[in-house]
Amino acid sequence: MINVGLVEDNLLLAQGIKEKLALSDDLTLNFHVHDGKALFDYLEPDNLPEIILMDIEMDTMDGITATRELKRRFPTIKVLMITVLDDDDKLFEAFKAGASGYLLKDVKPARLINAISETLDGGIPMSPTIASKALDLLLQNDTSKQKNVTAQLSPRENDVLDLLVKGMSVRQISDTLFVSEKTVRKHLEHIYQKLQVKGSREAIAKFVKRLVK
């Protein structure tokens, strides 16, 4: 059973999230508090959740400040931001603060449940509408890290990985780069081998995780 905490000041939105979590037999909601300050008033070292779903804009202590402090005090707890905001600055600040993923509150129940498991497995789940934006922000703020991550790849493999991270399918990558789908799959095979991953989701997660370190 996965123990989950929820930090959300909007009661209606919080209820919606609770209903989504209740659809899984593998999740249990340990607590719901309304802001970051209340979170630290509640947490006890002998009763910590494995993951916290964190809103961003809250009174008293916002979600980004709370995430930064949470990772300082309890570094093993994962934080999954779940918010209505897709603001560029908030995205970047959330990852820098230590968030492991970023979902919008209109996320489907199955996706939210899967994202929690994905986060605990070391992934970086993001809503499709913000994944590309998040990556672009990270690269703009530190291009040296991009070079370190992809130095082992050929220029064409870097092109393929960049398009993959932006959410493109094999066919879309093929059309964009004017190569066959067979060629794209061959490039992906080489990328997976060099990054020591099993597939596209793991490759994207590894790429982004190295950028935010």
From TrEMBL:
<dbReference type="InterPro" id="IPR000792">
    <property type="entry name" value="Tscrpt_reg_LuxR_C"/>
</dbReference>
<dbReference type="InterPro" id="IPR058245">
    <property type="entry name" value="NreC/VraR/RcsB-like_REC"/>
</dbReference>
<dbReference type="InterPro" id="IPR016032">
    <property type="entry name" value="Sig_transdc_resp-reg_C-effctor"/>
</dbReference>
<protein>
    <submittedName>
        <fullName>Two component transcriptional regulator, LuxR family</fullName>
    </submittedName>
</protein>
<keyword id="KW-0238">DNA-binding</keyword>
<dbReference type="InterPro" id="IPR001789">
    <property type="entry name" value="Sig_transdc_resp-reg_receiver"/>
</dbReference>
<dbReference type="Pfam" id="PF00196">
    <property type="entry name" value="GerE"/>
</dbReference>
<dbReference type="InterPro" id="IPR039420">
    <property type="entry name" value="WalR-like"/>
</dbReference>
<feature type="modified residue" description="4-aspartylphosphate">
    <location>
        <position position="55"/>
    </location>
</feature>
<feature type="domain" description="HTH luxR-type">
    <location>
        <begin position="146"/>
        <end position="211"/>
    </location>
</feature>
<dbReference type="GO" id="GO:0003677">
    <property type="term" value="F:DNA binding"/>
</dbReference>
<dbReference type="GO" id="GO:0006355">
    <property type="term" value="P:regulation of DNA-templated transcription"/>
</dbReference>
<keyword id="KW-0597">Phosphoprotein</keyword>
<feature type="domain" description="Response regulatory">
    <location>
        <begin position="3"/>
        <end position="120"/>
    </location>
</feature>
<dbReference type="InterPro" id="IPR011006">
    <property type="entry name" value="CheY-like_superfamily"/>
</dbReference>
<dbReference type="Pfam" id="PF00072">
    <property type="entry name" value="Response_reg"/>
</dbReference>
<dbReference type="GO" id="GO:0000160">
    <property type="term" value="P:phosphorelay signal transduction system"/>
</dbReference>
